[in-house]
# Entry
Amino acid sequence: MRAVVQLGPRCGCTRVGVESLFVTIKPVTHEQGVFTPLSKFQQLAALAKRQTAIRISALQKTPTNQVIHSLGLFPTGLARWINASDFDIVNLHWVCAEALSIGEIARIKKPIVWTMHDMWSFMGAEHYDDLEHPGRWKAPYTVTNRPPNYSGPDLDARVWARKASAWAGKAFNLVAPLAR
# Structure
């Protein structure tokens, strides 16, 4: 039995004796334990989907929140592979840039430990709160609490609504790294 499949930055699981595999869309290293189950064609398709998501995301203008926004719109096929694997636990790290769609995360059948390196898991498309207009995600997102300087389609609200719908009743075990 295998213990952990990780998506996102590598962690030190193997250093403490936990068998793990770092799964990514496209490995940039040939280091042991780094793996993609996607074919070359699927990797190219994932890149095209990522570029499309970037273009869609650019339609929303958020001048006081310039940090990355991720839509989680396009599936890659990783969730299907995760569910078919013999891993016991899935450790999500940074799954954006279309690595896993919101729907794919909902379809993972194994227990999920989500290491929260940012706020994307509970916000809309944004990864960090707008410091000039904080807390919109608490309301939740409405037309009346959209910052006055934002324009274009309200992708933050749409992504938040998709997450709320897809993840309703889904259990996540949330953890956060210690600041050093």
The chain has one domain: 2-175.
